[in-house]
Amino acid sequence: MSHNSFGHLFRVTTWGESHGPAIGCVVDGCPPRLPLDEADIQTWLDRRRPGQNRFTTQRQEPDTVRILSGVFEGKTTGTPIALHIDNVDQRSKDYAEIAESYRPGHAQWAYQQKYGIQDYRGGGRSSARETATRVAAGAIARKVLGAGLAIRGALIQLGSRRIDRARWDWAEVERNPFWCPDAKTAALWEADLDALRKAGSSTGAVIEIEASGVPIGLGAPVHGKLDADLAGAMMGINAVKGVEIGAGFAAAALRGETNADPMRIQGNQVVFTANNAGGILGGISTGQPIVVRFAVKPTSSILIPIPSVNARGEEVEVSTKGRHDPCVGIRAVPVGEAMLACVLADHLLRHRAQCGEEKT
Amino acid sequence: MSHNSFGHLFRVTTWGESHGPAIGCVVDGCPPRLPLDEADIQTWLDRRRPGQNRFTTQRQEPDTVRILSGVFEGKTTGTPIALHIDNVDQRSKDYAEIAESYRPGHAQWAYQQKYGIQDYRGGGRSSARETATRVAAGAIARKVLGAGLAIRGALIQLGSRRIDRARWDWAEVERNPFWCPDAKTAALWEADLDALRKAGSSTGAVIEIEASGVPIGLGAPVHGKLDADLAGAMMGINAVKGVEIGAGFAAAALRGETNADPMRIQGNQVVFTANNAGGILGGISTGQPIVVRFAVKPTSSILIPIPSVNARGEEVEVSTKGRHDPCVGIRAVPVGEAMLACVLADHLLRHRAQCGEEKT
Amino acid sequence: MSHNSFGHLFRVTTWGESHGPAIGCVVDGCPPRLPLDEADIQTWLDRRRPGQNRFTTQRQEPDTVRILSGVFEGKTTGTPIALHIDNVDQRSKDYAEIAESYRPGHAQWAYQQKYGIQDYRGGGRSSARETATRVAAGAIARKVLGAGLAIRGALIQLGSRRIDRARWDWAEVERNPFWCPDAKTAALWEADLDALRKAGSSTGAVIEIEASGVPIGLGAPVHGKLDADLAGAMMGINAVKGVEIGAGFAAAALRGETNADPMRIQGNQVVFTANNAGGILGGISTGQPIVVRFAVKPTSSILIPIPSVNARGEEVEVSTKGRHDPCVGIRAVPVGEAMLACVLADHLLRHRAQCGEEKT
Amino acid sequence: MSHNSFGHLFRVTTWGESHGPAIGCVVDGCPPRLPLDEADIQTWLDRRRPGQNRFTTQRQEPDTVRILSGVFEGKTTGTPIALHIDNVDQRSKDYAEIAESYRPGHAQWAYQQKYGIQDYRGGGRSSARETATRVAAGAIARKVLGAGLAIRGALIQLGSRRIDRARWDWAEVERNPFWCPDAKTAALWEADLDALRKAGSSTGAVIEIEASGVPIGLGAPVHGKLDADLAGAMMGINAVKGVEIGAGFAAAALRGETNADPMRIQGNQVVFTANNAGGILGGISTGQPIVVRFAVKPTSSILIPIPSVNARGEEVEVSTKGRHDPCVGIRAVPVGEAMLACVLADHLLRHRAQCGEEKT
């Protein structure tokens, strides 16, 4: 079952609410003897951390991770790794007035209907805060995947404005607060977002994640396909409404001869001269870069009032005054990277189980 | 684990190769005492069946299903339901010449790399033939969901040509060979596909599936979200490259106040005045119609030759002469319906387990 | 979930009722390229087959197995292996009169209470007939384990009479109808069982299964321990009421210095000079022979009438006239072997996933 | 997968080492709106706590539990419940000298072989300390089961001395340090254990756990049988070597007419006039009390030296000077109760999922 766990052999169970004492996760099934310390994880958490610039929520969370088990003298032992992150900047009063009124487009109403109860403070379990634990787990997944496999992500659309792929420069991604690979577009987004913030609104985004150096053969057809698991993992990130692999939705408009990635021989290796498949055929990795994109909707916590209802069944207008991201899609970049890392680590172990060591 | 199973409580395990003696599945976890006979399943299989018009493969498969267990005197018993469909029109000689040459864009090469062996006849396990078992399982899922929950699908884009949503008419879907809800576009697709077939090519498609009458509260946040499971289920269908829920990728370009579906009170009920969410908030069903779309790439089995390699590591040109669908997306409509039914049935049982009877 | 599946990576899903058209199973996760044909499986099914002597049920079932998928040109392909066994000797009339009356000690009443319906013919799903599919799956598990790992079983107690372990001779096991390793006791059992049959009664038994050549390191502590999974697997066999490993219940009476198996060095190897642990420490295999025993209760289908109730809520006396085993424990020997094989195959793959290739 | 998780719908994931900073678990799938606070859990932890008398290890651990998530304003919310217990009395120096020498009969050597690394301090993950998290989870399981279902356990054999069942008095269990239901035997055990401690030895035990008020119909045949899951759960407790249900191993010696529990009508209810089945038929609960027994071997950590090997491959004698239980079976009583509670809670939810509300 998978209420709050994901993965099968590299298995992550997450817990915690936005305004509870802490959040955390348990990573089970990690191979033994991998070097791992808290700094290895902290470095990825710091990338996702809120409050680092004016385009993300101003909640100040150091997100300091502690390893409570599963590591001995700097190495994993094969036993479950418990990760713990204290919540330090909860301001529950920000939410007091909306405890009873449901934000349209937010999980709050649905949780209440499903469970008949909820920790409404800061969105409780449905808060983007939960994604910190995914990033922490992703750091361990990267260790499992090894240095030869690189995962990196970028924001390629913010609101209705897309990057120009001709200007793509991975180095640029680290230089702006948007993970934008196109410097020129990044500058425009800055203005876009400032305008949005002033208007008390928010907007969506599209993120692209790429993994290179992926072993051939990962994926378990036909109901544990690598792309199916990736789609589930990405759609499971807060606010995601669409996922595509390789050519994605554009593939629908292609003809067979244009879509099929030709294969040639280089040295002793098979190489593909295109990558519409996004690195996956028949649910199995081909060794080409895996390319996955996902769309994030605008956050529903905005100043602009929206018609809604409250817990007493009355019609109200709801506007949200707490600290929020004008575009949650920005911080979804490291989360998407982490989810891709976790899915690949899981399938690496699954493939090794059935077929022995993988081809690289 | 989920190599060839999907679902947790309504659990389907499928087996079979395109040119083996039979295909089938085992449906486990079905509630007892539901009326079920072979005709209940056959009716849905007949919709997916190939060879019914000139726009699908000419392979003639009656797809006659037999129930081998789990049903007694016309009712489910709560024990596993084994479904069995004989393969009757295998023509393996069609594939003899390509046994050694890999179709670009096809799973064949990836299977060979992963397993070091494959049943290459007709695509073996990666054949769209496997989807018949999903449709069969979906028929049982519909019984679990009950008559109040309706699932229906339509083709909304074929190649680069989209339907006009203003002309959407569900009744039209049953009147043309494309499950097209727009009669005018259906006529154009007929010409499009005839041209493609003459050219020996193929094209992709976009399918939309809708479920209405869905109980509120289905979905298990945060790692068993209903939309995450739907995304995985749809991406796991052969040739699918993208999945979206509700506004989907278009949500990225919206602003918060446009995207959030307002809530109002009608009678004693909360109603939503829009459905950008596609019926799911925070991974939980809201009672609105669930709307999911997925993109299917063009089939890689085409007459037009593509640069490829063979099993001896030589460069070759591959063209595929067997019987194929010029647009596999067409037959994906009933498959998408079935997958949605299975995911909902699973979550209905999961919700009942944790929270008791569901709200409708 | 595990309603009708067992194992995680070597995963077996079984289906079928005693008097339905067929029984079968799907074995998923099997490594590719293992030589496998129907004869490899049939040889083990023949050992379990009923009607071979006067001490088992006279139902005549050839138990001919067909492989419907997952094997190509004599080798496994890594895709699910569907096994199918037709039921040919159903005589449902034998059961007509007891359809409405519940056999005390039999699953029939419990099934009715749980599901509100049941296929009562021959015990339906609860029939020992289901174990044929376990034996079939076990045959594949043995292929996964390889020739270096030997699994064999014996009956060590029938009714109140135990074998004399000093006379244990594995060769003897194949020479009598009881899988008894002690010829002298086998002769006494023959008389015991003839008397029981004449009396219209039945009795229980204790079975011991041993696996030698087991790699070191199998088992996933602390909730996937090898002994815990073995206990579940054995207790899940029909009519089993107790399971023990190594010294088992007798270990309770030992002192620490007597129970602990001393370790010495022989060549470069660690050897144990005793095996109270039954080959498992801390849930992990040690390389010593794994020894598991389980107790089977007497079958509840006997001629002697027992006070019971019927479906109309009336008190009745029930005696069962169908064809039954006076001691179902006898045929449980090959079933126990198969379950041990399946558990070990599963853990072999699990260990390889997490830790790489196993030590032998 | 189940490396460090157990249960499917009521799912417990445990983590932590004996001498790490803390131990804990995540309980996922708990129904919402159950009253729960830390005191509800602490009361059960206090029963298992070490150092309360001279017959258990003198390690002083307050075992104070904190709830870090999943509970809001005193009620469960349906989201994962994280439980955290700090380790406060680690004295790792006790173990320094045996870090390199393997205790015979202990998991230490097997862990080293499997993982190539281990946290050897105090047994690391294999320590009985891990069972505190099971007891904590069991406290929540009891809430799920409700007040109508009572679970209680007793020690019925310590070393070779068994209780006299004729003197069984449940009230007595709380009055002696052994959970012994027979006051006279408890007095003898006191002398037995004092002698053992002086000798620097240890001994085993047999525990019996009983659940009354169990709903009819729990259990998922044929591979998720209630008794099979119970057997796995009990065998998974540290040092357990045998498990039996109802008549258990003694059933092997019974005849069919003696073993089958007769059924009669009382009022409108079916009642059983015996309970050899231990409350389970065909893997399904019958409403009778569930009775399960398990045997615990003597702890391997004793003062008496045993022939062993060290990490350098040399033969050594090992004696263990740390703080240990002369009979770990004593503290296994609350652990067995907790495991029974967890298995029943899981099956209660599983049954509700498939069949709707359960019968009581």
Summed up:
The structure is a homotetramer of 360-residue chains. Chain A has eight helices and 18 strands.
Molecular structure report:
The structure is a homotetramer of 360-residue chains. Chain A is of the alpha+beta class and 360 residues long. Chain A is 26% helix and 22% strand. Chain A is built from eight helices and 18 strands. Chain A has helices at residues 38-48, 93-96, 107-115, 131-145, 183-199, 226-235, 256-259, 332-355; strands at 5-6, 11-16, 22-28, 65-67, 71-72, 75-76, 81-86, 150-158, 161-162, 205-212, 240-245, 263-266, 269-272, 280-281, 284-285, 290-296, 306-309, 315-318. Chain A is globular. Chains in contact: A-B, A-C, A-D, B-C, B-D, C-D. At the A-B interface, strand 1, helix 3, helix 6, strand 11 and helix 7 of A face strand 1, helix 3, helix 6, strand 11 and helix 7 of B. Strand 11 (240-245) of chain A pairs antiparallel with strand 11 (240-245) of chain B, so a sheet runs across the interface.
Walk me through the topology.
The structure is a homotetramer of 360-residue chains.
Chain A: E1 5-6, E2 11-16, E3 22-28, H1 38-48, E4 65-67, E5 71-72, E6 75-76, E7 81-86, H2 93-96, H3 107-115, H4 131-145, E8 150-158, E9 161-162, H5 183-199, E10 205-212, H6 226-235, E11 240-245, H7 256-259, E12 263-266, E13 269-272, E14 280-281, E15 284-285, E16 290-296, E17 306-309, E18 315-318, H8 332-355
Antiparallel strand pairs in A: 1-2, 2-3, 3-7, 4-7, 5-6, 8-9, 8-10, 10-16, 11-16, 12-13, 14-15, 17-18
